[in-house]
Amino acid sequence: MMMYTNIKPLNNYNLPSLLKIYKLFRFVGVLRESQKLFLRNGKLMSSITILIILLSSILLVVNLFSIKPSITDLALKATFLPMTIPGSPEFADLLTSLKNDLRLVIGLEGIFILAFSFSSLFFATASILASGVTYCGKNLSVKELLSRGMKSLKRPFVTWFYIMLLHLGYCLFLIAFLVPLVLLFSPKFTLSAFSIIVLIAATLFQAYLAVVWNLALVVSVLEEKWGMEALGKAGQLIKGSKLCGFFLNIIFGVFSFSVIYGLKKIGNTAFSGSEIVIPLILLNSMSLIRLFSLMAYTVLYYKCKETHGEELEMQGGVEHQYTKVTAVTPLISSDEAC
Fold first, then answer.
1. Neighbours of 292 (CB within 10 A)
2. Sites in the chain below the pLDDT cut of 50
3. Distance (Å, rounded) from C-alpha 282 to C-alpha 284?
4. In a domain, 104, yes or no
5. How many domains does the chain have?
6. Given this model, what pLDDT does residue 196 score?
7. For helices 242-270 and 195-222, angle between their N-to-C axes, nearest 10 degrees
């Protein structure tokens, strides 16, 4: 009996290490679950994918063909401007025409940006709804999904507006941080080595911040929360899982960069004579990556709710803060409730 008194259970040593490994590679399980999510309800997810590709392609083609004549005319008049005498009637007419063409180009681009932003936000909402419904084992028709997405668009729009403000604030902070460094150090050193290190660090930090921002968009779609309330709820839910969201952002970011770089290399040779093929492939590829990232964050949302729900049960309701983030929080309707 004495020979066993000093032996401690092996699980006491292995459990913390196993938990750390599980949290480190949890994003792999989220990606696998996201892939299964698409296959589980192939009809609905395929319909959303086709609609996203179709509308994005139509908007891009309309934009390119509507703005090309104005840009061509603007470039042609700009070449004639140095040949005219300043102060002459011809110079004034040409300058007025250039300003009108420039206003037209800016107006057309503004309309395209607004239309594309609206369609992107709408289909992001529909994608999150479809992922949530599929994850919970429910089903919706495409018509019901689009109708419900339109009705709930206000919440993600407000949250998206706050997220854009946070993005803008981060970019301004980064500029304010980099400008003094550029002035202090020599241009050669700053542009070659130091700036690359700073930009990589800034990109990684933004990927870390974007974990809460992306999850807040999911929260605003699946719950009756928006704006700062959705951001606060996302911050509560993601506790203990930020590393998982960070790795998801890194993977999708690296994949997006690889697609852009690969298409640029291929396009210079395979599609050198076409001006529309590469932009179409690039836009649709980015749309599909965005769709899959939203599916992954929807899965992460439910995983976080399950995690906090288990904590509530183990603690027996002692910690009041967990009652705000458990799985009993009502979603927007019974169809999305698991």
1. 20
2. 1-13, 310-335
3. 6
4. yes
5. 1
6. 77
7. 110
**336 SS3 class:** coil
Q: Which amino acid is at 135?
A: Y
18 domain residue, yes or no: no
Sequence-ordered list of residues with C-beta below 8 angstroms from that of 49, at least 6 positions apart, any chain:
288, 291
Taking a C-beta distance cutoff of 8 angstroms, is the pair 125, 153 a contact?
yes
Question: Two tokens at 219?
Answer: 């929260």
Our CA dihedral for 104, 163, 228, 154, rounded to 10 degrees, sits at 50
Residue 144: give the domain boundaries.
Answer: 42-324
* Alpha-carbon span 201 to 183, nearest angstrom: 20
Tracing tokens 């025409």 back to the chain, one arrives at 97
**Cβ neighbours for 222, distance < 8 A, ≥ 6 positions apart:** 128, 129, 132, 298, 301, 331, 332, 336
In a domain, 331, yes or no: no
In the chain, the DSSP E strands lie at none
Rounded to a whole number of angstroms, the CA Rg of the chain reads: 26
